[in-house]
Amino acid sequence: MNSNYAVPAVALVVVATILVGAFGLRISRTTSDFYVASRTVGPRLNATAISGEYLSAASFLGIAGLMLVQGPDMLWYPVGYTAGYLVLLLFVAAPLRRSGAYTLPDFAEARLASQAVRRLAGTFVVGVGWLYLLPQLQGAGLTLTVLTGAPGWLGSVIVAAVVVATVAAGGMRSITFVQAFQYWLKLTALLVPALFLVLAWQGDGAPRHAFEEPATFREQRAVRVDASLDLKLDTPLTVTVSGTVDGRPHDDERLRLPAGTHHVEQGTRLTFDRGAAVPAADRGTNGGMSTSLAASREERPLYATYGLILATFLGTMGLPHVVVRFYTSPHGVAARRTTVAVLALIGGFYLLPPVYGALGRLYAPELALAGDADATVLLLPERMVGGLGGDLLGALVAGGAFAAFLSTASGLTMAVAGVLTQDVLPSRGVRHFRLGTVLAMAVPLAASILVGGLPVADAVGLAFAVSASSFCPLLVLGIWWRRLTPPGAAAGMLVGGGSAFLAVAATMAGFPGSGPLHSLLAWPALWSVPLGFLTMVLVSLATPGRVPAGTAAILARFHLPEELRAEATT
Amino acid sequence: MPQNPAERRVVVTGPPRRTLPHARLRSRGRYPHVSGYYRPRTEIDEQTTLGHTYVRSLMRTQLRAGLAVFAVLGLLIGPLPLLFAALPDARRLEWAVLGFGLYAPLVLLARWYVRRAERNERDFVRLVEDR
Question: Is the alpha carbon torsion for A29, A34, A39, A45 positive or negative?
Answer without folding.
Answer: positive
